[in-house]
Amino acid sequence: MIDYLDKIPNNVDLGRDRVLQRALEHWQPAYLDWWFDMGPTGSRAYDVYLRTATSVEPDGWAQFDYVKMPEYRWGIFLQPRDPDRQVNFGANKGQPAWQDVPGEFRSPLRRIIVTQGDTEPASVEQQRTLGLSCPSLYDLRNLFQVNVEEGRHLWAMVYLLHRYFGRDGREEAESLLERRSGDADNPRILGAFNEPTPDWLAFFMFTFFTDRDGKFQLCALAESGFDPLARTCRFMLTEEAHHMFVGETGVSRIIRRTCDVMTENKVEDPSDVRALGAIDLETIQKYLNFHYSVTLDLFGGDASSNAASYYTSGLKGRYEETKVGDDHLLHDLDYTILEVVGGTIVERRVPALTALNERLRDDYIHEIEAGVGRWNRNMERAGLAFRLTLPHKGFHRAIGNFAGHFISPEGEVMSEEAWRGRRDLWLPSQSDYAFVQSLMSGSVIEPGKFANWISSPIRGVNQQPIDFEYVRFN
Ligand code: BYC
Ligand code: FE
Ligand code: FE
């Protein structure tokens, strides 16, 4: 069970390790300073109907109540330990799972944990002003729920750094509060986490696409031979599911509203849709193209010696590693990756070990395709011909084999000039952003009311009605 009497709620018996407890209690005020500086703008005194973890059991772990966000009980929750767990892949397969950091893997493990940890506060920074333009109290509450849970994910990684990496770990934990999303001098580590999230369509796309990278990376780390990392990530995944729900349903509700406006008014032209205060499907497609492509970059290079060595060492596995029916060593297997050769995209077989980033990206794409299919049902039901599609994997990529190439959404290799000439047809332009933001110039805070550009959800949070007062402003 979780100890809520402690200053830092936890299920890791923190009270038994005084030095660690003091170090974390020292980091806690720095974390709160960061939250006040970079967390949701102006939200300090709001009472928000939030869920808080009360146990790590699959059912009934959450309790819902009004909380002021700075008083949220950010804590350290690990899935219970399985004493028989082993390293399930790589050269150390069959060893008992490590309860401590093997000396030779200290540096790569720290790097993985820091990279994971860095994304969590980054996303809160990216989303900090969205509360000022919320489409409803329901959506505002969901934004804040995502934000406090990303804060907790930071705590999860900081616990590992403090507990297992000594002074280096404490220094890294401080740096996690110092980098800033989009900062020219001290940016966040990974590309997508330095992009702005300027409006709610971008927020929903981000939680659908980019939080799902979170899911797949956490799944790969939940296979880790370093047991505390695996157990932490398992519990983080239960929270991640809600973030992706917010994204998928958010985009779907925007699409549904657009379809209603189109059918009720018998219009199809994007400018007519815009004139009626809804977001045209063409603009939604451009946002999709942007968030999908920057998120594909987060999986790293197509052929990566880092990925191979993480796997061989037993630090980072594949998606659902233990369900894959092979030898979990991958010495004799290969995998297809794409590359650009002389103006065309060709397939190349490479050793499976080096292609693990690409494989995880493919697992991710598979799940994304299903979600986009569900979005398209809105158009099918409305009898509209428009369908959202995923651009080619090589479109608008900055990492891996497509970096430096100019690929159209259909997968043609183009000249830079020709590509730039069409850029604004494929990705949101300044005027697209300006239009979307013009719809979101103020917030809708009357219980049960929704902005004109989004439909209401099917149900409320925790069986509360849709017109429940999810946020009280005081
Ligand atoms: N941007 O060997 P390579 C989440 C670097 S999201 C900038 O191909 P590797 C969340 C790379 O660091 C999940 N740099 O890559 C979501 C390397 O640098 P060095 C976050 C990049 O290492 C929403 C070089 O390029 N978790 O939780 O195999 C809200 C060569 O790279 C990028 C993780 O990512 C990029 N996109 O794979 C809140 C898990 N990509 O060595 C939260 C931990 C690559 O040349 N991280 N580089 O200096 C990892 O497993 C790996 O670091 C990566 C990269 C998969 C990210
Ligand atoms: Fe997270
Ligand atoms: Fe998340």
Characterization of this structure:
With 474 residues, this protein is mainly alpha-helical. The protein has one domain: Orthogonal Bundle (Ribonucleotide Reductase, subunit A), CATH 1.10.620. Helix content is 47%, strand content 8%. It contains 12 helices and 7 strands. It has a 3-stranded antiparallel sheet. Strands 3-4 form a two-stranded antiparallel sheet. A hairpin with a 2-residue loop joins strand 3 and strand 4. Helix 2 (106-126) packs parallel to helix 4 (166-176), helix 3 packs antiparallel against helix 4 and helix 5 (200-221) runs antiparallel to helix 6. The chain binds benzoyl coenzyme A (BYC) and fe (iii) ion (2 copies). Residues 150, 211, 214, 240, 243 line the site of one fe (iii) ion. The site of one fe (iii) ion has 5 residues, from helix 5 and helix 6.
